[in-house]
Specification:
The complex is a heterodimer of chains A (about 240) and B (about 110). Chain A is about 70% helix and about 5% strand. Chain A has 6 helices and 4 strands; from the N terminus they run ββββαααααα. Chain A starts with 14 loop residues before the first strand and ends with a helix. In chain B, α2 packs antiparallel against α3. The longest helix of chain B has 30 residues. Classes of the chains: A mainly alpha (about 240), B mainly alpha (about 110). At the A-B interface, α2, α5 and α6 of A face α2 and α3 of B.
Chain lengths: ~240, ~110
């Protein structure tokens, strides 16, 4: 490389196949490419893992079954068995975020979970879905959710707006959490990698830090996918069980 | 009767699994997942900070929108700020109690 790249350059979205419909730019970008790869990999893992289902699972089947069992346990514990109709959704979200996080760790690839557009779109989708589930399951009874049981009625003008804002802050915190974690980790690694070049002989120090940080990033990737999924489960549980 | 091997070991295994399943859970959620235990202190601090900021963003955003489209300037922003702060505090309080949201249920079980 002739020049030291800026730490934030890794988040730049580059159109690979420019597509314009009217004034709308729907180009196929590096972000979209990574998403395609992620979905293809998940399909490959699950279809390949379950194609020849053996009683004693092989490597691929074991992996597919483990991921299923993990998310199934999460849904069973946090939503309950009557929440199992939402298992496909929860499983898809988990696999998509997990694979997106991990593939973003590969050098020269792209972290689409480090884009607030992507995480916020996922979060808004979860939020709208959970609200709809609550409304359909409970009808107008759903709105008692915004008033804590046992509070005096004259407090309602203050409590209800606070509860509504608190409820609406869910997608914001859900989206920002994933985005901030991924973006911060990747930026930090890029900054230290930049030091490697400028420090010359002592360049091994930032490399050592980056090795340690890479291990940390692997934990963060798995943990953030887990947190995103378990919060989805908890929101679903609130919508289904209400009280 | 001889103690011969059961006709279908697989079926017996299936029955055992079913029994274990029914023992393990009665279909009710086991309680809020304890996310706080699975992260370190830094992670928890970041999480709580994000909860606080998120509610503030929503509160101030709603107030600002009300000002812009209803014309209540500047009261929407002021009320939004305070309500957002309160909601943020409540989020933090709930995050500290156990991850997730939702108003407290009527009394402990």
């Amino acid at each position: 490389m002739t020049e030291v790249s800026a730490p934030l350059e890794q988040f730049v979205i580059r159109p690979l196949v420019p597509i314009h419909i009217g004034t709308t730019d729907i180009s196929y970008t590096n972000s979209a490419l990574l998403m395609t790869i992620v979905v293809a990999l998940i399909m490959l893992l699950l279809v390949g893992g379950t194609r020849r289902a053996a009683l004693v699972p092989g490597r691929l089947q074991s992996l597919a079954e483990m991921s299923y069992e993990f998310v199934a346990g999460m849904v069973r514990e946090n939503v309950g068995t009557d929440g199992f109709e939402y298992f496909p959704l929860v499983f898809s979200i988990f696999m998509f975020v997990l694979f997106g996080n991990f593939l973003g760790l590969i050098p020269y690839s792209f972290t689409f979970t480090g884009q607030i557009v992507v995480t916020f779109a996922l979060a808004i989708f979860v939020f709208l879905l959970v609200t709809l589930v609550g409304l359909i399951r409970h009808g107008f009874h759903f709105f008692t959710f915004f008033f804590p049981a046992g509070a005096p009625v004259f407090m309602a003008p203050i409590l209800v707006p606070i509860e509504v804002i608190s409820y609406m802050s869910r997608p914001v915190s859900l989206g920002i959490r994933l985005f901030a974690n991924m973006m911060a980790g990747h930026t930090m690694m890029a900054v230290f990698a930049g030091f490697t070049i400028t420090l010359g002989v002592f360049g091994f120090l930032p490399i050592a830090i980056n090795v340690a940080m890479f291990a940390l990033e692997i934990i963060v990737c798995a943990l953030q996918a887990y947190v995103f999924t378990i919060l989805t489960c908890l929101y679903l549980r609130d919508a289904i069980h209400l009280h | 009767m001889s103690e011969s091997e059961p006709p279908d070991p697989l079926r017996r295994l299936g029955r055992e699994i079913d029994e274990a399943r029914s023992r393990a859970g009665d279909g009710k959620p086991a309680g809020r997942g304890d996310v706080t235990a699975s992260g370190n202190a830094l992670g928890f601090g970041l999480r709580v900070g994000i909860e606080l900021i998120a509610a503030l963003i929503v509160g101030v955003g709603l107030g600002w929108l009300a000002d812009r489209y209803i014309g209540t300037r500047p009261w929407g922003l002021i009320a939004g700020f305070f309500l957002g702060s309160a909601a943020g505090m409540m989020n933090v309080f709930r995050a500290a109690q156990g991850m997730g949201g939702g108003p407290p249920r009527g009394g402990r079980k």
